Amino acid sequence: DTGVSQNPRHKITKRGQNVTFRCDPISEHNRLYWYRQTLGQGPEFLTYFQNEAQLEKSRLLSDRFSAERPKGSFSTLEIQRTEQGDSAMYLCASSEPGHNEKLFFGSGTQLSVL
Amino acid sequence: GEDVEQSLFLSVREGDSSVINCTYTDSSSTYLYWYKQEPGAGLQLLTYIFSNMDMKQDQRLTVLLNKKDKHLSLRIADTQTGDSAIYFCAEILPTENDYKLSFGAGTTVTVRA
Asked: How do residues B22-50 score in pLDDT, each as one tens digit?
């Protein structure tokens, strides 16, 4: 296991389409986070899971966004009816039990909505 | 983010020291971080410092923390071309149920020969 893995690396879609991203955290990391990063900005927190439970959602996460982590391992982030403003890098991170202060990030999924 | 502030650009000659500065917002933040992001890549945790420390050194990296002024800095000694990247300062902020990382906008470091 070499780190947090995200797929796809890039996604181009038309406005109004639905998209889904996947994140595979580091094995045995119980916490999984989603962040969004737009050009020239730092990442912004969207949501996080502890095991399969989604414990926190940012106000940035509109009702078109849904995240799941059904078995407490990989997670998916779905965006319905995409808008041009959804174009961003979507970053996933994970942390191990007892060390939630250390987040390890994946390479991200770059979403472009045309 | 919640106003973690960093200068946007830094240009440094190879072999010189780089110093990246950051001011953060929450004096009760327990941890403060430096992340590095290379083009097309995710964020790599470089180092972090616990709030009861005022300095941490890790090979070529030195972190200085001034809690009174809420100022954090990262010094990279003997800067190399591979150090060219965007460097993000981050602090832990409380959320409704837990904590989250709040990032600055990043400092783009360019190393010139």
From this structure: 999 887 888 899 999 998 788 999 999 99
